[in-house]
Amino acid sequence: MSLLPSSSTGILRIFGWFAGVVLPVVLLTALFALILGAGNAILGTWVNQFFSGFWKWLTSFDFSIGRVIFWTFVTLLSLALIRPAQTGRFWWEWMDRIGRFPAPTKPSHAYWRSVLILVALNAIFFAANSIDAFYLWAHQSIPQGVTYAQFVHQGTVQLIAATLLSAILLIVLFNQDESLSGRPVLRTAALVWIGQNLFLLTSIALRLKLYVDAYNLTSPRISLLIFLLIVGGGFIILSFKILREKSLLWVTGANLGLVFTVFYAVQFLDLGAMAAEYNVSRWERNPARNLDLNYLESLGSSGWHSLQRVAEKPEPGGDPFGVSAFLAGVRRDNEGGKFNVNWRSWQARRAWNLHQLLSSH
After folding, report:
1. CB contact burial 205-230 (16+ within 10 A = b; e otherwise)
2. What tens digit of pLDDT does each residue of 120-175 get?
3. Which end of the chain has less neighbouring CB within 10 Å, N or C?
4. What does the CA dihedral 264, 267, 268, 271 come to, rounded to 10 degrees?
5. Residue 159: exposed, middle, or buried by beta-carbon count in 10 A (0-12, 13-18, 19+)?
6. CA Rg, the chain, in Å?
7. C-alpha span between 230 and 270 (Å, rounded)
8. 101-130, pLDDT tens digit by residue?
């Protein structure tokens, strides 16, 4: 380490610390383990097992291009988080520079252009929301000749795209000079448009509910609902920008914080199990409903508890659905060691679900 220049930083100093501190410890430990292992049969067995296992672990790595690139990226990101560089505001100044557009040469033209855009788009959204209010909210039905799949799948994508484009357009309009964005008429029209976008999001959620009522709930449909909540939260953040004249940097940071918080929280939820429990609960209340057992079985461990509830439901003729046989197969697979997977494939959720299944047997 003393041979390195005093000005050296980053990877050179990390390598020097490893060579001067870690490497001698590793080498001396291995040397004395081998010497003592040669004079002690039990210790020697342990040392041989350790080195054999270590060599097997070292040579079993998957050095494919994709994995090398991914873990290199993770390593570099981890180093940056452990010891961040002193960049100051260098990486964020560009956002401040584009936070506001320059003042227009003809303010009246820019003002009326913005007003007419908001008025026209409010009128279009009002028409779409009025149709939804009539068919969805008042009658809770779909037009004649339109299937639930068409009503949900073909309509939802376009409506979500419309709301996202609305958010982008509002950001552009209210990054104009404050002499324009601060006008009460523009603010009022923008807030009305945000309200219409939120109503449109609730209509999409109601479309999803009608589809689930007709068929079943699945984890992707729960994910769609979570996505709608994120978009709605983004519009609320946008409302604060408009009312408080927040910068583009603030809007970006607030939205990134919202997305990170939701994604971090959702990873702890078992969406498959939630969908399975919901479907089985509705089937228990109304056995005439169609219950997609193939979907429950495809969920793996997330569907075992719900399948156990189906198996415990008394049915004429024994087990007409074959659920008990399926769960018995899961138990046999466990006894046969099928679930004793590599430690890298171990999942706490599956282990807990397996414990629940076996304890209920």
Report:
1. eebbbbbbeebbbbbebbebeeebee
2. 988 988 888 888 788 777 766 666 666 666 666 656 677 778 888 888 888 888 88
3. C
4. 140
5. middle
6. 30
7. 19
8. 777 788 888 888 888 998 998 898 888 888
